[in-house]
Design goal:
The protein is α+β, with helices and mostly antiparallel strands and about 325 residues long. It folds into two domains: about 10-210, Endonuclease I-creI (Roll), CATH 3.10.28.10; about 245-319, no CATH class. It starts with 8 loop residues before the first helix and ends with a helix. It has a four-stranded antiparallel beta sheet. α8 (about 215-265) packs across α9. The protein has helices at about 10-15, 25-40, 60-75, 100-110, 135-150, 165-180, 200-210, 215-265, 270-280, 290-295, 300-319, and strands spanning about 40-45, 50-55, 80-85, 90-95, 110-115, 120, 150, 160-165, 185-190, 190-195.
Length: about 325
C-alpha cells in the first residue's frame, strides 16, 4: 500500500503495523495491555460500577484494538469519534466498554478479581501480564508505539519516542528496550516521561522488531541518501578549501618572484629558477601541474613545487 506523500513517516509506520496479523493469544493480550496502559481510562460510575474507555487519535489503531477485544476477549466495544476542544477540534476515536465487558477485560489483564458473590475488586490500576516471551515483548512495544509513540522523519533527524503517562510505564519500556539490546534515553516533557531512541541503527532495529519491514527499507534508503549527500558536501567543502589554499600559495609565490626581480633582478638567479619565476609571475592563477606543462622541457608537479619553494626562501632572505 503506497504511502501518501503528505503523510508523516510515523503515520506510515503505524499504518504498516496495524495491518500485521493479530498473532498468538498471548501476544494479543500483550497488545491489549499496552494499549490499555497508553490509551485506556478506568471510570467509576454510580453504584461503584467500573467501566473502561479508550481514546485514540489514530483511526487504524482504534480499529485494531476493536478487533483485538472482539477476537481475544469476545467483548463488543462501542466505537465512536468525538471532537476534542483542547486539541483544536481534532477528531479522536473513543471505544467504550459496558460494565460486564469491562469486568472481562480487567480480569484478563489481572487488574481485578471477582468473588463468589459476583463482586469485583480492583487489585491494581495498571495491567499486569508476563512478558517473558520475546513475541509478547515485541507485541507490547508495537502496541505501545501505536498508542503513545511517534518518530521524526529520518530525512531530518533520528528520533523515536514513547510518551509514558507514569513512571511505571516508562520503567517497563526501558526494561523491554534493554532486553532487546537497546538503550533508551528518558527525559521529562510537559510533566510526562518520554522514553526515546536517538541512534539510527537502533531505530531501524526497533522498526524491524515491531514488524515494520517496509518502513525499515524506506529508512535505510533515506540513510544511504543522507550519507551520500553528506559525503558530497564534505568533498565540495574540501575542494573549495583546497582551491583557496592553492590560490593563496600561488599569490605568495608570484609576490616572492616580483620581490626578487625588484631587489636584485631575475638575472641573478640560476637559469632553472629564472625561468620558473618568469612563468609564475605571468600565470599566478595556474596550478603546479599546469605550470610544469608550460616549462621546456615539462616538469613534474614535485619539481615545480621544489623550485617555487626555493624562490620563496630567496625572497625571505632578501627581506
Amino acid at each position: 500500500m503506497p504511502r501518501d506523500q503528505n503523510q508523516s513517516f510515523a503515520g506510515g509506520v503505524k499504518d504498516e503495523l496495524i495491518r500485521l496479523p493479530m498473532g498468538k493469544s498471548c501476544c494479543q493480550i500483550s497488545e491489549i495491555g499496552a494499549l490499555t496502559r497508553t490509551s485506556g481510562h478506568l471510570q467509576v460510575r454510580g453504584g461503584g460500577r467500573l467501566t473502561v474507555t479508550y481514546r485514540m487519535e489514530h483511526t487504524g489503531t482504534a480499529r485494531r484494538l476493536y478487533q483485538l477485544l472482539k477476537t481475544r476477549l469476545q467483548v463488543s466495544p462501542v466505537l465512536r469519534y468525538a471532537q476534542s476542544p483542547r486539541l483544536g477540534g481534532r477528531r479522536t476515536w473513543v471505544l467504550s466498554l459496558n460494565e460486564n465487558d469491562s469486568r472481562i477485560l480487567l480480569e484478563a489483564l489481572h487488574m481485578a478479581e471477582t468473588d463468589e458473590e459476583g463482586r469485583m475488586t480492583i487489585r491494581r490500576t495498571v495491567p499486569r501480564h508476563p512478558l517473558t516471551r520475546q513475541c509478547c515483548r515485541r507485541a507490547f512495544l508495537r502496541a505501545a508505539f501505536l498508542g503513545a509513540g511517534t518518530m521524526a522523519n529520518p530525512e531530518k533527524s533520528y528520533h523515536m519516542e514513547w510518551r509514558a503517562e507514569d513512571e511505571r510505564l516508562a520503567e517497563a519500556l526501558r526494561r523491554l528496550l534493554e532486553k532487546a539490546g537497546m538503550s533508551g534515553v528518558s527525559y521529562e516533557r510537559k510533566g510526562k516521561t518520554v522514553v526515546c531512541l536517538k541512534r539510527a541503527e537502533q531505530i531501524s532495529d526497533m522498526l524491524a522488531l515491531m514488524g515494520a519491514s517496509s518502513s525499515v527499507l524506506k529508512m535505510e534508503n533515506i540513510r544511504v541518501n543522507r550519507q551520500t549527500r553528506l559525503r558530497a558536501n564534505r568533498a565540495a567543502n574540501c575542494d573549495e578549501h583546497n582551491s583557496e589554499r592553492m590560490l593563496d600559495a600561488a599569490q605568495r609565490q608570484a609576490r616572492a618572484c616580483r620581490d626578487i626581480s625588484l631587489r636584485v633582478g631575475l638575472f641573478t638567479l640560476p637559469q632553472a629558477l629564472r625561468e620558473m619565476a618568469r612563468v609564475r609571475m605571468e600565470n599566478p592563477e595556474l596550478s603546479l601541474a599546469e605550470l610544469g606543462e608550460m616549462m621546456d622541457p615539462p616538469l613534474s608537479k614535485s619539481a615545480v613545487n621544489h623550485r617555487l619553494r626555493r624562490l620563496v626562501e630567496i625572497a625571505d632572505r632578501l627581506e
